[in-house]
## 1
Amino acid sequence: MTAYIATAAGVVFLTVIAGMIIPEGKLNKVINFVLRIACILILISPVFGFFSEDLSDGEQNLVDYDYVADVFAESQSRELERLVEQKFSIECQCSVEIVYEDGEIREKGVSIVTYNVEEQLIEEIQSYLKELGYININVNEKTS
């Protein structure tokens, strides 16, 4: 990241200096255009790096995929909590475990903690989650 910032700053600095040194005319316009295109390409290069399949730095890619899996798990947990609370009119806390394994982001399981509900409702919640396609469902009751 430090190398990227240094490169970007250097190219922008050279573009500014070149713009001041080059005399006015057609050559000035062409050189400024080329330098601006170079600046834009360098500034957006991290976007292209995100989509590339460069496996030379495998550990860095795993860190990125783990972060994506964590963000996705948090989002899915909030959405599932909203769905369960809306469908069953109960208060609960949901946790969807999503991991990056074997080149795929996949769900490993779901844990739900409910408050003061009957055993029959717990079975209905489990059935509902199976219909939604969740696996390894764990619904626990917590009395408070």
Note: DSSP finds four helices and three strands in the chain.
## 2
Amino acid sequence: MKLEDYLEELFEELYQKARKAFKNDIRYAYTNSSIEEIGFEWKKRYSQQEQEYLEECLTEYRSYYMGEEQFLYRQGIQDCIALLKHLQVLA
């Protein structure tokens, strides 16, 4: 296995562990709530068609957010490794 493949696998494993830990945190409930669960009175404010559109928007936002989150997590690991190498903690 090439070092690049190994690091990719390691980053993915660490990311999944961090995500699992976050899912056990109360903050996850707010980011993963559906429009109905957020606490607004959507049925009174918007028609069914508007509610469906808002749900699609929220789903797209979450999808984008998860991609950005994964990128930033991996970048943080790479930055940490670079810093440790610069400090000569890692060879």
Note: The radius of gyration is 19 Å.
